[in-house]
Amino acid sequence: MAVDEGDENQEHLAPFLTLLGRAGSVIGSMVATGAAQVIAFKRNQVRKIAMIIALALTAAIFACAAARFAAFSILVALGPEHRAAAAALIAGCFALLSGLAILLARGRPEIP
C-alpha cells in the first residue's frame, strides 16, 4: 500500500513541478526582456545627454568667439582716441548679457 500512495503522489507532483518550471521560465524571460529594455533606454538617454553636452560646448565656443570679435570690432571702430569709451561699452554689453542670462535662469521651469 505504501508503494501505491508514493506512486500516486509522484503522479500529482510531476505535473506540478513541470508547471512550476514553466512558470519560472516565463517569469525569467519577462524579467530579462524588461532588463534589456531598461538598459536600452539608459543607453539612449546617455547618448542624448552626450550630444546635448557636445552641442552646448560647441555653442559656448562660438559665443565666446563672437563676443571677442564684437569687442575687437568696437575697439577698432571707435579708434585709439576713444579706447576708454569702447571699454565701457564692451563692459556694459557683457553686463547686459549676464543680466539676461540670470533672468533666463531664474525664470526657467523646474526639470522633473
Describe the structure in your own words.
- The protein has 112 residues and is mainly alpha-helical.
- The protein is built from two helices and no strands.
- Helix 1 runs antiparallel to helix 2.
- The protein is rod-shaped and about 115 Å long.
Tell me the helix content: over 70%
Q: Termini, distance in Å?
A: 69 Å
Shape: rod-shaped
The biggest sheet, with number of strands, parallel, antiparallel or mixed sense and barrel status, is: none
Q: Please count the beta strands (DSSP E, at least 2 residues each).
A: 0
The multimeric state of the shown protein is single chain
The average pLDDT value, as a whole number, equals 82
Number of helices: 2
Specify the structural class: mainly alpha
- Nearest-angstrom radius of gyration? 35 Å
Low-pLDDT sequence parts:
none
Compressed to H and E, one letter per element, the order equals HH
Properties at a glance:
mainly alpha; 112 residues; 2 helices; single chain
Structure summary:
The protein is an all-alpha fold.
List the helices and strands and how they pair.
Blueprint: H1 2-78, H2 83-106
Helix pairs in contact: 1-2
